[in-house]
Design brief:
single chain; 141 residues; mainly alpha; 7 helices; 0% strand; globular
Length: 141
């Protein structure tokens, strides 16, 4: 079903970001703000209508039978050149709420594998993003 909805690079990136935020089935205001800021920073805001894309994403999310195939489809549309940056954005979105649950960890593992990021490198990125978030919250290095 998603293949008939998500057809271009910008949509794919937007839907990947939604998937990172909604993997735990919660979408907090902080996550929406973080996602919106990323879309604006990346220049996608004028190209995709976030609310329409969110409705589209929610319409097919329950029908995603194979998350790995879904992620591969999105990554093929995105055609990332900077895979570490893409992974770090997704990681930031996954940890933008207070907890990282098993589903989000599984998602990040699949994503790192699809992007061909070695486990050790993925762990370093995860630690870096977690520490940056801690510094932002606690205001202490």
């Amino acid at each position: 079903m998603y293949t008939s909805i998500v057809k271009d690079q910008d949509q794919a990136l937007c839907h990947l970001f939604f998937h990172c935020c909604l993997e735990d089935d919660r979408f907090t205001e902080a996550e929406m703000d973080n996602l919106s800021a990323k879309l604006v920073t990346l220049g996608l805001q004028p190209k995709v209508h976030i609310k329409d894309e969110l409705v589209s994403y929610r319409s097919y999310k329950p029908s995603i039978a194979d998350e790995r195939s879904y992620l591969i489809y999105l990554i093929q549309l995105i055609k990332p050149v900077n895979e570490l940056a893409l992974y770090s954005y997704c990681l930031e979105l996954c940890i933008s709420d207070p907890s990282l649950d098993a589903r989000e960890e599984s998602l990040l593992g699949k994503l790192a594998d699809i992007l061909e990021i070695e486990p050790g490198i993925a762990q370093i990125i995860e630690k870096l993003i977690a520490q940056r978030r801690a510094v932002e919250i606690q205001k202490v290095f």
